[in-house]
Amino acid sequence: VNPYPRRLGLTTSPLDLELPPLPDEARADLTYLPAFAIDDEGSQTPDDALSLEGDRLWVHVADAAALVRPGDAVDLEARARGASLHLPESIVPMLPESATQRLGLGLAEVSPALSFGIDVRPEGQILGLEILPAWVRVTRLTYEEAEAQLDQAPFRSLYRLAQTYQARRRANGAVSIDFPEVRVRVQEEQVSLRLLPPLKSRLLVQEAMILAGEAVAHFALERDIPLLYATQEVADVGQPVGDVLSLAQMVALRRTLKRSQYRTTPAPHGGMGLSAYTQATSPLRRYPDLVVHQQVRAFLRGEGLLGTQDMVERIGAVEAVIGSVRQVEQLSDRHWTLVYLRRQPGWCGEGVVVEQHGQSGKVLIPELGLEVPLRLPADASPDSRLPLVLNGVNLAQLEAYLRVRT
After folding, report:
1. Closest CA to 83 of 165, 15, 33
2. d(CA 367, CA 157)
3. Mean pLDDT value across residues 328-333
4. Beta bridge partners of 314
5. What is the dihedral sign for C-alpha 377, 383, 388, 390?
6. Digit-coded pLDDT (tens) for 1-22
7. Which of 284, 328, 319 is nearest to 90 (CA)?
8. What is the Cα–Cα distance from 302 to 217, expressed in whole angstroms?
9. What is the distance between the alpha carbons of residues 176 and 130, in angstroms, rounded to a whole number?
10. What angle do CA 266, 268, 271 make, to 5 degrees?
């Protein structure tokens, strides 16, 4: 039993509300463009897809705001949840399950989307943005399948664009932290852990989504559209452009980062290296993204927009719950990882020293995605690798006891 959703007051029941039919409105026919929704194997919410048309990057996003209007029953419930809750044992969607069934990209032969056509310079600067309600024909791929096609069109050009755009952000001070990522899953009471490989296809998708967020932020600024802007203050840690940091350096850098915040006025997102940024590519899973889509769609229709005070209310509602959502996800991953270890009393592995204070410190176990305190040997130093053996697990305190194997 995972106790943390209940302890922090989060619901684990699906949202049982009806959605209206898709409105009868004009949609651009973009089905001529090959579009690819790239995600982890087994993903159940394909909410974004990519196309390339000359120098224009298309980011197609599930058109959630076509069905969820500001202030309706589904919108209010989504606001109270803040985001979908991703647990190892289940996913609790922010919206009714029918939203994904009807709007998920690639789940039908042709899917409705809100499509962002972004014109990009060769050096990664944004020239302009066109936003269209559209019909798209999407092929779903796993990251591994996309990785195998990176030497082919359009993936080769998409990856080159991602590299160029990331380099521009890094030159503007973007912070790069790339910890080992472990996917924890629970099925039929069996816990499985999988270390996700550092695939280039993940960078491709990540940078396309960030680029879309920057483009939408500037689109809104130029047209006085009130939005929820994501901002972050970052201390000047002097990370050289292009530097690859060690695990210990990344932990030290992480300690300097402040929590990102939503604001009604744009401010730099230091972690992204952007002067203005908004989240716009996951409206099925994150309430701030849904609000952005609602505002953009109202602007395209020529309808009244939500005002700044409406944005303030939504920021308050989201910040009241989103921290708990993220905390429950982290605690749940650690809980089930420790359950996995408790079922393997003879576990042995390797840890990397990421913090050191004399003979005490902390190690990161890459294959588990787990950080634990440890008494260090006299010759240990940051980033040194230590053979470890499990002594025991205290599940109630979320603690694993390990020692250096001799």
Report:
1. 15
2. 32
3. 98
4. none
5. positive
6. 999 999 999 999 999 999 999 9
7. 328
8. 19
9. 29
10. 135
